[in-house]
């Protein structure tokens, strides 16, 4: 695109080096060193304006979130993040927008020591694809297919905040800045993922909502689960804005939490709490795996509750 | 997007396995084994409808080209391709379009043994970002910064065919199907790249046109070059449709050739010709590197010729 080389220079100037990047931005491809005894972990996610975020989202929040959703996938594999590529499609070469985007992007990248090693800038409707790379010691990745019947089901942090923000945004009424922050600035649970190596049996990140994402673990592991709705971790802010029955659909099917959901035998519970609290991450047991396939939810009154269908809709139809 | 899981299954069903893919599509991220003693080579390129290809381009040609432009970058590094991720943004879930796209994509992927290991499908204006991964033995990558004064400048194949097709397409007049094929189905010079390990001093792929891309090598290596326009390799079809002075701008500044341009000492010329001809690739010496910075072109009459400015415009403005 016109001004592409100036754009690339603007991006490259902010990249932090890593010793395992033999050659970064500026050649046909990057040259990278994967440490011996480790597997490479690769994930790729796209954000499209008006589909994955409201059009008025601040550029810095878009930059943060585009990287965060990818790092969240690495966290779910218990991988240590290392590098990423950035494919940025922009309607016009706008330095102010780009600098804002890079502020958010590099704030998160630098926090996790992720080096930007390449990518592409093109002209077109606003869209961002990031491919993130990390490592995990051979055989220690947290997969979806390792859960065992009887394992407890855990989630990190709190659920439903982002979906609450989205519902408020759609209603065009009063909204909570705290909830909106959780939508725009999700926290990839990298530290939690690393702490769960050797402790959790399976894991996934919550992008599409607990029901859909836990459903993937259940399918991959050939199991079912019962979830106790009264144990779903809930932020005070969400509770202030939504009563219990309004919260459950947000927490089960809202998506965009980017918390980790993982499974582990009850015998590992103490070690898990200790390992996570050392890293400042809270986690909660919300249910248990059962041999019978399917997801069953129980209200605090002991009644069955069918989670509303959703998952992977995000902002679909917002534009 | 609605139907995303069906789309992913449709894609996954066509993936060919590789023994170094420990875990492919279907978890939060892929788990991959990089061979010992090798560096990982990573590149990422985006194609946007109406910007990088005319809107009426056949889906199979789009699928081929989206992968080809990435494999071309790996070829320019002398890397052996291994894996890729595919981020596909589609205006609607259209099985017929998708199947056509996958036909072209997997035709090329299977030809080079590239395994699709992950990605994302999203709703939005048509756009494709592929991140390609390959390996190169430690220290044997072909970089842009290794050229030496006195080295000869080579290009593979023929130049200007794709740019000729684009010019015909823009003129809306008669066109050559052979030239159009070169625009829609570029050949990534993977075999040539592998053959040049240990022989070439620097290399790049020709995506933006010879003048711009050779210019990157000159800048990175701190050198200049003189190119003999009479030696630019020209297909008979291009010569049939464009006379000499009409060809030069296409060959120097047209772009989309996806041939390799590389440099090597004259003493390596025989070994290079032998190594390339064993792989069925033609290559031509078109000039020589000089200490004085800048690119100078000489016509067959011995006159100086200034290449028209272009590079990295592609289909910009087509839409």
Observed structural traits:
homodimer; 319 residues; alpha+beta; 60s Ribosomal Protein L30, Chain: A; Phosphoribosyl-aminoimidazole Synthetase, Chain A, domain 2; 2 domains; four-stranded mixed β-sheet; 13 strands; globular; disordered C terminus
Describe this structure in words.
Two copies of one chain form a homodimer. With 319 residues, chain A is an alpha+beta fold. The first copy, chain A, has two domains: 4-137, 2-Layer Sandwich (60s Ribosomal Protein L30, Chain: A), CATH 3.30.1330; 151-305, PurM-like C-terminal domain (Phosphoribosyl-aminoimidazole Synthetase, Chain A, domain 2), CATH 3.90.650. Chain A contains ten helices and 13 strands. In chain A, strands 8-10-7-11-9-12-13 form a seven-stranded mixed beta sheet, sandwiched between helices. In chain A, a hairpin with a 5-residue loop joins strand 12 (294-298) and strand 13 (304-305). In chain A, helix 4 packs across helix 5. Chain A is globular and about 60 Å long. At the A-B interface, strand 2, strand 3, helix 2, strand 4 and strand 5 of A face strand 2, strand 3, helix 2, strand 4 and strand 5 of B. Chains A, B: Keywords: ATP-binding, Kinase, Magnesium, Metal-binding, Nucleotide-binding, Thiamine biosynthesis, Transferase. Chains A, B: Mg(2+) 4 binds at residues 28, 43, 73. Chains A, B: Residues 26-136 form the PurM-like N-terminal domain.
CATH architecture of the largest domain in chain A: Alpha-Beta Complex
CATH fold annotation of the largest domain in chain A = Phosphoribosyl-aminoimidazole Synthetase, Chain A, domain 2
Give me the secondary-structure category of chain A.
Answer: alpha+beta
Oligomerization status of the protein chains: homodimer
Distance between the termini of chain A: 25 Å
The tally of beta strands of chain A, per DSSP, is: 13
Helix/strand order of chain A, N-terminal first = HEEEHEHEEEHHHEHEHHEHEEE
CATH superfamily of the largest domain in chain A: PurM-like C-terminal domain
Averaged pLDDT of chain A, please? 94
Q: What is the radius of gyration of chain A computed over CA atoms, rounded to a whole number of angstroms? A: 20 Å
Q: What is the global morphology of chain A?
A: globular
How many domain units of chain A?
Answer: 2
Strand content of chain A: 25-35%
Number of helices of chain A: 10
Strand order of the largest sheet of chain A: 8-10-7-11-9-12-13
Instruction: Name the chain pair whose interface involves the most residues.
Output: A-B, 66 and 66 residues
Largest sheet of chain A: 7 strands, mixed
């Amino acid at each position: 695109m016109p001004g592409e080389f100036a754009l690339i220079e603007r991006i490259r100037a902010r990249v932090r080096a890593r010793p395992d990047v033999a050659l970064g931005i500026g050649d046909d491809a990057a040259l990278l060193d994967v440490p011996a005894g480790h597997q490479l972990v690769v994930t790729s996610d796209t954000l499209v304006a008006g589909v994955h975020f409201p059009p008025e989202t601040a550029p810095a929040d878009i930059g943060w979130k585009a990287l965060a959703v990818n790092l969240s996938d690495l966290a779910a594999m218990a991988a240590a993040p290392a590098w990423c590529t950035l494919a940025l499609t922009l309607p016009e070469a706008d330095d102010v927008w780009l600098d804002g985007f890079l502020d958010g992007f590099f704030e998160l990248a630098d926090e996790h020591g992720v080096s930007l090693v390449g990518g592409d800038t093109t002209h077109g409707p606003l869209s961002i694809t990031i491919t993130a790379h990390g490592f995990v010691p051979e055989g220690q990745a947290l997969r979806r297919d390792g859960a065992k019947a009887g394992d407890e089901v855990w989630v990190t942090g709190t659920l439903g905040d982002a979906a609450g923000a989205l519902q408020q945004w759609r209603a065009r009424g009063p909204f909570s800045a705290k909830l909106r922050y959780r939508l725009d600035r999700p926290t990839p649970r990298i530290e939690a993922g690393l702490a769960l190596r050797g402790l959790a049996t399976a894991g996934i990140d919550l992008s599409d909502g607990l029901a859909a994402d836990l459903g993937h673990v259940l399918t991959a592991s050939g199991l079912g689960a019962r979830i106790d709705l009264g144990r779903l971790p809930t932020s005070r802010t969400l509770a202030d804005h939504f009563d219990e029955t309004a919260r459950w659909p947000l927490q089960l099917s809202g998506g965009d939490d980017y918390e980790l959901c993982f499974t582990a035998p009850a015998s590992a519970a103490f070690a898990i709490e200790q390992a996570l609290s050392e890293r400042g991450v809270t986690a909660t047991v919300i249910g248990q795996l059962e041999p019978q396939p399917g997801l069953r939810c129980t209200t605090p009154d002991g009644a069955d509750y069918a989670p509303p269908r959703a998952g992977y809709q995000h902002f679909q139809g917002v534009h």
